[in-house]
Structure formats: structure tokens, C-alpha cells
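dumping the sequnces here before i forget
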Amino acid sequence: MFFNSLQKIAKLGAGLAAFGTLAFAMPAQAQGDLLVAPTRVILDGSRGTEVILSNIGSEEATYRIGLELRRMNEDGELVPVETAEANSVEEASLGMIRYAPRRIALPPGQPQAIRLSARPGAELPDGEYRVHMSFKAIPRPREVTADEQPSEGVTFRLIPVYGITIPIIVRHGRVEAQVALTQPAIVQGEAGPEFAMTIERSGESSTYGALNVFKPGVSDPVLQLGGVAVYPEIGHREVRLRLTPEQVAALRGQVRVEYREMPDQGGGLIAAVEGMIG
Amino acid sequence: MTKTIRFGAASVAMFAALGLSTAAHADTAAADATAEVLAALELTNTDALNFGTVILSATSTGGTVNVDAAGTRACAGDVVCGPAGAEQAAGFTVTGTAGSNVSVAVQDLVANPVSLTHTGNVGSTNAEHNIELTALVDSAGGSYTGFSGSEAFTVGGTIALDGSEIAGTYEGTFDVTVAYQ
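..and the predicted 3d for all of it:
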């Protein structure tokens, strides 16, 4: 009798367990995983483009697409800016971007294109305008079942709302940038030696590229730092890169530093400097 | 700088199967095969942030529970850590182009505070139904210099209890953003 009812409970339990795991796995994992491509958009003229958002999770998810403002500081960090604190350039940037859709429900494995374009006003001064497009899953509301309330103690469920932001850059009219590099050096950082130099930038345009450090007679760079952007709101950007003892040894002596566009942008030289690292 | 502007439109690499033939002549409709390869950025969540179970005595004066980015839990003040095992830091994996500049930001709790609310009393603002999330910390420490192409990072946090909280489950959300320059 006892054995019999136990068996029944076990059966019931198996069914419940399967259901239970599913219900539990949902909020914790894989709801809202996402892929965004490309990772950087430059718009010039009236031609629009598309950004692909794909659900790479295992559950259906609803994503919200929004526009945010960021300002780069001299350490190269992008600091969020509240809309209320936006300056005139940032307000104009937010106002000129058209995009759709702004909310997408996607089954797993499903990509969708978000169309976007820029409509700068005719009276707008020439310059570079920028917003950061954010892609974020909206957490799904879930039912609370009575039996998961523990009778004593306190437990927690923290649901991360996670997403990606990419820069959307609008070049309106004629924009240029002049770039110079300062002498590179090795300095003592908080956690050991660091490669240090400064990128000086002037003009209306941002620059974006890779920093490569070469030794005379060696074709491959001894040090590489990709995707270094210097946005128009800053006139110079401090570049710091932590070094291993081997890298320190390899860098000493005569070096040449090149700041080049990324290979997919043509790889053109933006600025270079010869220096001596002691 | 004119080069940058000319390449404008989108930072895409154009690969044509038959070399970089100037495609776009769709009217000849013959053998030109083109494909665009876009640089992509992926973000996946592998683990939730979990503080495990915490026990409050009836006379508790409150305290804090911290789960650091490594997932180690510590209870301070008049709060007792329940059985260990469930606690963990939130885990994420970010995948993109190696060598690109990727940064990680967690919600600024000063500007946008987070309160965990008792799941049986959603919407209540009573102290006994709410627990404040007072800190978030990410293992990436802001940004990657020398992004390898795929990096895992974790997010830990601290919650503050005032001792009046009723038993049960408390739920809240927090933002994690991966930004590309």
C-alpha cells in the first residue's frame, strides 16, 4: 500500500519535475540571449541601412530597441548621459534617427532586420552626430506558484536585463579630423607596467582604428590594440594597455606606432609616430 | 579622413565570391555572387545572480548579504546565511571580433536604485516587502583591453536587509550592458 502510493507520487513527481525545471530555467537562463550585427554603423547622406538582431537563446524573447546617449571620457570610456542632460548636439542626434521596429518578439534562432536612417535638418551645422542603439530583452512576466514560497528564510530572484549597445554615427556635411600621436612610454600602473600614449584629435569627425606598435626590421606588430575610437567630444584620448614582462622587454628601444583604420574600412594610415621606449 | 567617409554606410566587409567585382549590376543577373559578412556581437546569460537562502530571526536588526564576482557569499550584521550551495554570481559570455573594443557596464544603482520585492506582495512599498540592492560588481572591471574574441564575465552584488522582511522570495531586475565603440 505504502509502496503503491509511493510509486504514484514518484510518477506524478517525475511529471512535475520536468515541468518544474522548465519553469525555473526560463527566467534564469537563455531568455534574451542576442546577436547584433554590424557592431558599428556610419550613416552619411540620406541612404539608410539595416542592423540585424537575432535571438540566439533557447526561448522566445521580446526585445526592445532604443536610443541612448554616451559621452567618451579621456580614458576612452563611454559614460551614459541622461536625456535630460543632453547638449544641443546630442539632442539633434536623437532627433534625426529614424528606425523601426522598436519592439520585436523573436522565436529562438530567428533574426530580424531593423531599418534605420538619418534625417538631419537642413539648417543643422555640419558635423558628426552620434547615438548608441541599445538592444535589450524585456523580462517575461512569470506566474508565482504558491508552493515555491519557503515557509522560513528569505530567498531572492534577481533577473538580469542584459543587452548590447552599438554606436550609430551620422556624418552631416563636410567633416574632417586631424590626428597626432604622442611619444609612447612604459609607465607603472596599478597592476604593473603599462603601455601609455595619447591620441590627439581635432576637427568635427571621430576616428576609429587599430594601434599597432612595430620594431625596426620586424614585420609583425609587437603590440596590437584594435577598435580604438576617439569621438569628437574629446580632444585627446589616453591609451593604456597592461603589459606582460615579455612585452615590456620586446618593446624597449626604437619603436614605430601606427594608428590605422580597421582592415574592413580600408586600413588607411591615420597617424604614426617614431619613438624610443627606455 | 575622406576614406572613412567614403566607406561610410555600415562597417561591413564586402566579400564577393568572384573577387571584389563591382557587383550591384543586378540587370545582368548572371554569375555575380555576393555576400556581406557583418561583424557581430553576441551576449548570452549563463547563470543568474543568486544570494541563496538567508535566515532572519524575529528580532533581527538587519544586515547585508554579499556575493562577489567569484560567487563567494558573505553575510554581515544580524543576518544568517542559510545552507550554502545555491549562491552564485551571474554569468555572461560576450563574443565578437577579437581585438575590438568591448566594455561592460552594470546598472548605476545611485542613479537608478533597485529594490527586490516580495513575490507575494508585488507593488508593495512597505519595508517588510522590499530589500535594497546596494551594489553590483562585474569581473570585467569596465572594459577589455585586448578583447580575445570571446570572454566570460560574472556579476556579483550586495543586498541590504533591515530585519523586518517577511519570509519568502524577493524578485528584482538589474541591467547589464555590453557596449561596442
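The mean pLDDT of chain A is 85.
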